[in-house]
Design a protein that fits this description.
6 helices; mainly alpha; homodimer; 216 residues
């Protein structure tokens, strides 16, 4: 039974890594839609989210089956519960990509992001995508060192978010209210994607070590 | 064993209702801080959040103990997992109240919300608080009808959010970029509080009936 349980649990983490790759793709495409003003790419992110939702449901059902049939206790129990929490956060990151894509779509044929803040937003998009890409690898490798390091990228995201507020509120802002509102919300969405990535990485540390990271 | 399990599960739901009452208080105080520009009340929300976090941890530990010692299967298992998800959403609603309080604090002695959008924001604050208050009662009573009805208040929140965008983007907006950015984010925070309230209410429907509501 023990080996069957471990095999099934390993399969769950393979699925989680696969969902994370889908989220990485959603973040990347949403950012392209945003920065290029491409409605077709935005639609692709929006309609593609159903696949992430369906994959989440499959992982949840597998976890429930594991809990019901294998009745894990102690550490094994907490690993299955961690998998349930990870899949829920990954799905949420997919939803946040959809929010980015919807703002992009709303402004086509214009760009939601004016030139004066494009460098900052473009960096936020890159950091978010990079964090999610590294998270997929962290899930695959159960890499504790890489998981702990992901928090440093989140510091970079926080720095970019503060920069975006400085850009908006410096008094130099010339693009008006509507782009300011879009940029404030876009910054929030990218920040939340990064927050979830760090949270999932910390759950991986817990899965491997049985300990919460000290800064979690 | 069966009765002990049910008693412990009932105690978990009493704790969840208590946490929801704390969140209701946090939402109410954050809105006072926001609309009155009261830094002291804002601080109260920000420092009080640690109690919600601690209460969440206690519920999580109880749920893990229940899962480990009682080894529930099928419906009972799903109810315990639902409780874990509910407590996580309630904690998040507390965090969102802290975000509202922090915007209020940032603008003291000014008000973050200019007069021209005060009616809309004030209604959003009222709807959010009312939804969380009703949610606490729904958790206490396991009231499926009231849980389903909560979705209608969320429609009202969505309407107010759209109204806030119309206020911001009408071309009549005279308060400048900084308040527009604050209002966009505040609207997002209240909307998310309402979303989580509906989600928790749907989880209560599942706990009582074993079925997801059709619109969930």
């Amino acid at each position: 039974m023990r080996n069957a349980f471990q095999d099934q649990l390993d399969a769950v983490f393979v699925d989680l890594a696969g969902i994370c790759r889908r989220v990485e793709n959603a973040v990347a495409l949403a950012s392209i839609a945003l920065l290029e003003g491409d409605a077709r790419v935005a639609e692709q992110v929006i309609s593609g989210d159903a696949e992430i939702d369906a994959a989440r449901e499959r992982v949840e059902e597998t976890c429930f089956t594991l809990l019901s049939l294998q009745q894990p206790v102690a550490g094994d129990l907490r690993v299955v519960i961690s998998a349930l929490r990870i899949v829920s956060e990954l799905e949420r990151m997919g939803d946040l990509s959809v929010h980015v894509a919807k703002i992009a779509r709303l402004r086509v044929p214009e760009l939601a992001v004016p030139d004066e803040i494009r460098p900052t937003m473009s960096q936020m998009a890159d950091v978010a995508r990079d964090m999610v890409a590294r998270l997929a690898q962290i899930i695959t490798d159960r890499d504790v060192q890489a998981a702990m390091a992901l928090g440093r990228d989140d510091d970079e995201m926080d720095r970019l978010r503060r920069q975006s507020f400085r850009d908006l509120l410096s008094g130099q802002w010339s693009s008006g209210v509507e782009p300011a509102v879009d940029v404030a919300l876009l910054g929030r969405y990218y920040e939340r994607i990064a927050d979830h990535a760090v949270s999932v990485a910390h759950r991986i540390v817990f899965v491997v070590t049985g300990q919460q990271p000290v800064d979690a």
